[in-house]
Amino acid sequence: MNSMYEQRLKRLRDYLKREQIDMALITNPTNIYYFSGFYSDPHERFMALVVDAEREQTFMIVPSLDLEAAEQHSVVRDMIPCSDTDNPFILLNAKIGNKRIGMIGLEKKTFSVHRLERLQEMFTGVTTNDIEEFIALERLIKSDHDLVQIRRAIAITEEALEAALRQVCVGMTELDLTAELEYRIRKLGGDKPAFETIILTGKRSCLPHGKPGPYPIMENDFLLVDFGVYAGGFCSDITRTFVIGEGTKKQEEIYEIVLESNLAAIEKVKIGTPYGHIDRAGREVIAARGYGAYFNNRIGHGLGLDFHEIPSIHGENTQVVQPGHVFTIEPGIYLPAIGGVRIEDDICVHSDGKVEILTTYPKQLCRL
User: Fold this and answer.
1) DSSP state of 248
2) Are residues 41 and 117 in contact, defined by beta-carbon separation less than 8 angstroms?
3) Buried/exposed code over 32-49 (b: 16+ C-beta within 10 A; e: otherwise)
4) Could you give the residue ranges of the DSSP H alpha helices within the chain?
5) Distance CA 304, CA 237 (A)
6) Are strands 192-193 and 127-130 parallel, antiparallel or unpaired?
7) How far apart are CA 329 and CA 279, in angstroms?
8) How many Å apart are CA 275 and CA 270, to the nearest integer?
9) pLDDT tens, residue by residue, 53-72
10) What are the residues whose beta carbons fall under 8 Å from the beta carbon of 130, sequence distance 6 or more?
11) Which residue among 81, 218, 312, 328 has the highest number of C-beta atoms inside a 10 angstrom radius?
């Protein structure tokens, strides 16, 4: 396991040398985990993985209260505790021995302006380079170890869904079902939900990112369940839509169109195919049936340590499918007068060209 992190750190150092970046200051907790094996949410406190390319020096600045956990889990053995009253940039400067730093690599989406100003006060004349894209591309290719963890997260997701659905009845609220589902996640070994669970009923199911509320499930409602599990460092993400009772012919029609779109997009997945073609393959099915205006989001996104990663699967993306990519396919139709349907699967592409649908929960219309 340690060798995996050491290889990742070596590739990072090689990149820094090629780009003539003196030092990387990685502060996104997920990226710190990717390179070190240690994860913690520092909240407002400062935490960083520091990689000095020239001297091949790697160390971490961690909140003092996390020091013991970091020492237990990180492959990086050199730790600097940072108390609530310490200035982390003074600690950084002291650690590198007042060495002059010309360029520092940062994740610019993560590093705040406030911290940048404090950094520039300490290192006069320093310039910055965004290393976010390099790290994202490194994380894009999933290893066999990564896939083991993703499959585990998906297995917990599907077992939790099956158990929670057995409790569904007319009158149960969205919040009731959310609580039941998230209880099952933890009972089955999931660390936490991968994101805020979306459970919506009736017309509210037309809200792609709506929040569960005190709304009762009623006869002939759509019931949309979109959730994921964080387990072993990796995420799952699945959506299934159900009908309570018999439902209507219109609901069945909408559901079948979305299912056809889902299958058409998955059929398009092949090594070397631009992601834009995958989005269009699913979107064209919905548009051809007259519902194009009611599918107004991308058809999928990358999945891994975070539940939203690259690639962003939209019609303009020219990036191509490669072995090791894991992503979602999730078309939907959202009708304010009726409700919404979304069907989401997690997909993996293997080096032999095989396209594996990692999610196995049935997709045929299910009436509860």
Assistant:
1) -
2) no
3) bbbbbbbbbebeebbbbb
4) 2-18, 29-36, 67-73, 88-95, 113-122, 132-140, 144-165, 174-187, 249-268, 275-288
5) 10
6) unpaired
7) 9
8) 10
9) 877 789 999 999 999 999 99
10) 105, 106, 107, 108
11) 328
CA distances from 81 to 46, 60, 173, 239 (A): 10, 8, 46, 42
Cα torsion through 8, 13, 19, 24, rounded to 10: 90
Bond into 193 cis (ω within 30): no
The single residue listed with the structure tokens 């009726």 is 338
- Sheet with 192-193, side-by-side order of all strands: 192-193, 229-231, 234-235
pTM (predicted TM-score): 0.93
State pLDDT tens for residues 279-301: 999 999 999 999 999 999 999 99
Dihedral angle computed from the Cα positions of residues 2, 3, 7 and 10, in that order, rounded to the nearest 10 degrees: 70
**Taking the chain, what is the end-to-end CA distance rounded to the nearest angstrom?**
44
Instruction: Give the separation between CA 231 and CA 190, rounded to whole angstroms.
Output: 5
Say if CB 191 and CB 230 are below 8 A apart: yes
At residue 1, the pLDDT reads 62
Measuring CA to CA, how many Å separate 98 from each of 2, 54, 117? 31, 15, 18
- How far from chain centre, in Å, is Cα 244? 30
**Rounded-to-integer distance, Cα 88 and Cα 50, Å:** 12
d(CA 292, CA 358) in angstroms, rounded, equals: 27
